[in-house]
Amino acid sequence: MSRSIFLSAMLLSASVLAAQALGNGLAPMGKLRPDQTAFRALYRELVEIDTTPATGNCTTAAAQMAEHLKAAGYPESDINAFVPPNFPKDGGLIAVLHGSDSSARPLLLMAHIDVVNVNKAEWKTDPFRLIEDKTYFHGRGTSDDKAMAAVFVDSLVRMHREGFKPKHDIKLFLACGEEASSRIKGAQWVADNHKDWIDAGFALNEGAAGELDEKGNRVSIGIQAGEKTYQDITLVARDAGGHSARPHKFNALVAMSNAVAKIGAHEFPVMFTDATRAFFTLTARTRGGPVGAAMSALLANPNDAAADAVLSENPDWHATLRTTCVPTMIKGGEERSALPEYVEANVNCRIFAGVPPTQVLQQLQTAVGDPNIAFTLRPANSTGKASVQAPPPPPLTPQIVDPVTKVAHMMWPDVQVMPTMSTGSTDARFLTPAGIPTYGMSGMFREADGGGVHGVDERIPVRSLYEGRDFLYEVVKIYAMQ
After folding, report:
1. Residue burial 149-187, b: 16+ Cβ < 10 Å; e: rest
2. What pLDDT score was predicted for residue 384?
3. Engineered SS bond to 390: which of 195, 229, 273, 359, CB 3.0-4.6 Å?
4. Is-contact 313 298, C-beta < 8 A?
5. By the 8 A CB rule, do 295 and 280 touch?
6. Which pTM was predicted?
7. What are the tens digits of pLDDT across the range 132-159?
């Protein structure tokens, strides 16, 4: 470890040391510090701006976050609230805290400010009001991904007001469109058209969180390298149709039902990245017992079906070990008394890093084995662009891992730092191919059920949000001084 990393780690602020006193379990927070009160107000403001694809406006949210930076003293020249052409509601924000060494590559802090659509009738609370009880913050985006967006804006505000002078430029990038399959992808648009705005030595992004056990105790904290490719595949079956009283041997709906059933039963082979191999190696040591033995066996032989079956009981581990494809939508038929002429199904795939989508399509065609079913790779969004294949994972070098480990062990001495691969897909898929290695880390601990992310009644533990804020602030400062 370099001397600068060591010294920075030793000079961790009182906010980090205070976090150690919170103890285990999801106990209520005590009285907030003044800086936490200011952060909560910023976080509330961001959560309560509707940024859903259906009814929201990211441009408004980006402009509001820009106002916080201006109030902290950032000049207009260091703030870029941009709007992609023809997408007036899909704006984003780029800002920079200048460093002392112009030859040092910048550090990029990236988060998305759009959120998944909601059906308010299904929620127990108003999804666009920040509701806090003794344990959780509730609301759409409280976790994904306005928690990190608010933390990064707040971090730049704090650093500027404290007079912190980093060695590297620190860039902030808030993007819209990460959650919307039918809208422009802001991160992709910037990477394709204005890479100079976000060019950096590496980026920090969502994609890894901490694990809480069933009692709310902290178990591990993730650092993510690599993710899967998001790819939808459209299946179509056609027939001439006719009267339902005179059925044919071929029925498009039956054929499609058989096809999606076979896809649902299909298992892709076990694969590892360096990060997932490290994850299962470390987890095998800490878990022990039959689960630990199964992990060790599968690491030694990825074709060990018995070990795979044990681990695949856990949906997260099952998804981490392989490509997954699952039917998510089906439609077809015209009349109750008519044979279906057209049946369409959507299969959503999360493809293991480095595997081409065309290869997965061919494997599904083989598994279905029906020439009457047409398979097509679906474009990623309304612009007609194809999905971007996830690049090979960036390396987890000591430069990346050491600061995370140092701060994590100062805050939570008994928590294991775990390399991971995201089983989902984030805006990192647009940056890493553009030469900006992107890593996921949040320092925020969550329960195994995911906290309602992408579903109903999204939430994040109050303690986890404030701890994650302190964690990211200190890690960013160390990175910025390397």
Report:
1. bbbbbbbbbbbbeeebebbbbbbbbbbbbbbbeebbbbb
2. 52
3. 229
4. no
5. yes
6. 0.87
7. 998 999 999 999 999 999 999 999 999 9
